[in-house]
Design goal:
Blueprint (H helix, E strand, L loop, with lengths): L3 H23 L8 E6 L7 E5 L4 E3 L2 E5 L7 E6 L3 E2 L4 E11 L6 E7 L25 E7 L11 E8 L8 E8 L5 E2 L7 E8 L9 E8 L5 E10 L3 H5 L3 E9 L11 E12 L4 E4 L4 E4 L3 E9 L5 E2 L9 E9 L4 H4 L11 E2 L3 E5 L2 E7 L6 E9 L2 E2 L5 E8 L9 H34 L1 H18 L12 H20 L7 H36 L10 H9 L1
Parallel strand pairs: 7-12, 19-28
Antiparallel strand pairs: 1-17, 2-5, 3-4, 4-17, 5-16, 6-16, 7-13, 7-17, 8-9, 8-16, 9-10, 10-11, 13-14, 14-15, 18-20, 20-21, 20-25, 22-23, 22-26, 24-25, 26-27, 26-28
Helix pairs in contact: 6-7
């Protein structure tokens, strides 16, 4: 049995493997899977809100937070439109930090769900967004250009800060990574931009384990920068925000005390793009599946992690599901189908017959009504989050009950050709067989005669004639028969009067008969012996010659 030490070791190994698996999932590159929500290469006054004294302002389509002469102040800018951020996102921004000295204290990118007015807080490393009670739920990344507060020997740092219901007013520093500020700071005489990226990976299975990562994608020289903050556990943004939506914005402050040669400063945000990560739920196996009207179609609703690997739904299947199929007929989209604002169930859309929770996934069953032949669009919302790719046009295609399977023309022609060849071959074989049978019937007599001749040939092939020595050889018997025939002919002509002609003729005829009987007897014995061998096989032998038979033969 394993001791306590082994149990602790096994538990530690299991925990380590689980941590490695979680880290591997967190490290997946998800930016290329983000679905673009918007890309702003310039900003307008009606879509942003400025905060600060003096406030931020627009400069040739860019948002300028700090400019020349801005000392001891700060500014913020917020997008007025809230966006859904809690399901996972990738945000890219292009910014400029230029100056003859260190340009301000740095720049912070903030997502929050509190307010877009009166949100300015403390200066210094707080960068204006920390220390304000009006801004009490946020997640921020601070790019500090002078984190050590030594204006003569500044060092840079990147911090991830969170303020939620359980965090202090100043927020909680989750991580701080030193970096080389020359990657992001340029001269005011030659201002250049850098690109930053913030990624939030929502963990729906364990929301408290949701993470963020930040990286400098491009430095001011256009190179792929190697600055990346390792994944940091921040928890669920839903818990931090108290909502699934939030504002996005930037904040910056200038130093309270500057050096005499600080000169001009320029802190700008020049572009911003938002991409939502795909939903962690998906429908497996749709894509235009054909279903006969009146029959059922079954769909699987699965859950995936950030690396797109299938996982089980947490809990016991109590998720809030909104699933329907909308009939679009011949149209290829919901817009083309002109669905009314108050669609009727069974006419314009149908709901699932059953939704079962099996083995960590949902199995959804629809029955396609009769008379509804055409395209169906699928829409799935799980816990208020629309499933990836929804609504999906032409997810199901209903066909008539007697609809053909749809064999391709080439395949049909090939099948017909094969059938024709088979029929021709069978017809030819039947004709040949009939002709053969007819020939057999016509030549039946010859065939039987040939069989009989063949059988006789086999019988006579090895026949040996045993001649009675008292009657001479076969040639002598033939010669004797001929002489007797001549003598008979002479006697019948009356040329011999010395003998009794009738007696002599009878005697010659009797002698000829005996000679022929002896010859026939020899042949008959040979044929009977051959027949016995043929019918009963080589195991059957002639009867054993007895002494009496030997005596009778000698006497004869």
């Amino acid at each position: 049995a394993a001791g306590p030490g082994m149990v602790r070791l096994a538990a530690a190994v299991g925990a380590a493997l689980a941590a490695l698996a979680a880290t591997a999932r967190a490290q997946c590159d998800v930016s290329d899977r983000a679905v673009t929500v918007f890309t702003k290469n310039s900003f307008t006054a009606d879509e942003v809100a400025f905060v600060g004294s003096p406030p931020a302002r627009l400069s040739n389509g860019a948002v300028q937070l700090l400019g020349s002469g801005d000392t001891g102040t700060g500014a913020q800018v917020w997008l007025k439109q809230q966006e859904r951020l809690t399901d996972g996102f990738v945000i890219d921004f292009t910014a400029r930090l230029a100056g003859s000295d260190v340009p301000g204290e740095g720049l912070a990118f903030v997502v929050q769900n509190a307010a877009i007015k009166n949100t300015f807080g403390s200066g210094g490393n707080s960068l204006g967004y920390r220390g304000n009670e009006n801004l009490n739920n946020y997640l921020a990344v601070s790019i500090l250009t002078c984190s050590n507060r030594d204006r003569n020997a500044c060092t840079g740092a990147i911090e991830v800060v969170r303020r939620g219901p359980t965090d202090p007013t100043a927020g909680t520093n989750l991580t701080s990574l030193p970096f080389d500020t020359s990657l992001v700071v340029s001269s005011v005489n030659n201002p250049r931009d850098f690109v930053g990226r913030l990624t939030y990976l929502a963990n729906e299975v364990s929301p408290a384990q949701s993470t963020v990562r930040f990286e400098i994608v491009k430095d001011i020289n256009g190179n792929n920068a190697q600055v990346r903050v390792p994944d940091v556990v921040v928890g669920s943004l839903v818990d931090i925000f108290g909502s699934r939506f939030g504002f996005m914005g930037f904040s910056s402050v200038s130093p309270a005390v500057t050096r005499d040669d600080q000169g001009s400063t320029q802190v700008q945000v020049r572009s911003l793009s938002l991409g939502n990560l795909p939903s962690d739920t998906a429908i497996a196996g749709t894509a235009g599946r054909e279903v006969v009207v009146g029959r059922s179609v079954v769909l699987d609703l699965i859950k995936r992690d950030s690396c797109q690997k299938e996982i089980v739904f947490p809990g016991d299947g109590t998720n809030n599901l909104e699933i329907n199929l909308t009939f679009t007929g011949e149209a290829n989209s919901l817009e083309e189908a002109n669905i009314p604002d108050d669609p009727v169930e069974g006419v314009h859309f149908i709901l699932p017959d059953t939704v079962d929770f099996l083995n960590g996934k949902y199995v959804v069953t629809f029955t396609i009504p009769n008379g509804k032949e055409g395209n169906w669009a699928l829409d799935v919302v799980v816990d208020g989050v629309r499933t990836e790719g929804m609504p999906q046009a032409n997810a199901v295609v209903s066909v008539p009950i007697d609809a053909p399977e749809g064999i391709p023309t080439f395949g049909l022609a090939l099948i017909i050709a094969v059938i024709v060849l088979i029929v021709c071959g069978l017809t030819y074989a039947v004709i040949r067989l009939r002709r053969y049978r007819q020939k057999l019937r016509e030549n039946q007599t010859d065939i039987e005669a040939g069989k009989e001749k063949h059988h006789l040939d086999l019988l006579e092939r090895d026949v040996q004639f045993n001649i009675n020595p008292l009657m001479g050889s076969l040639e002598e018997m033939k010669q004797k028969v001929q002489e007797n025939e001549r003598e008979l002919a002479r006697l019948r002509a009356g040329k011999n009067n010395l003998y009794d002609d009738d007696y002599t003729i009878n005697q010659l005829q009797q002698q000829n008969a005996e000679l022929r009987n002896e010859m026939n007897k020899l042949k008959k014995e040979a044929q009977q012996s051959e027949a016995l061998q043929t019918q009963f096989g080589p195991g059957v032998q002639h009867a054993t010659t007895t002494r009496r038979r030997e005596y009778e033969q000698k006497r004869v």
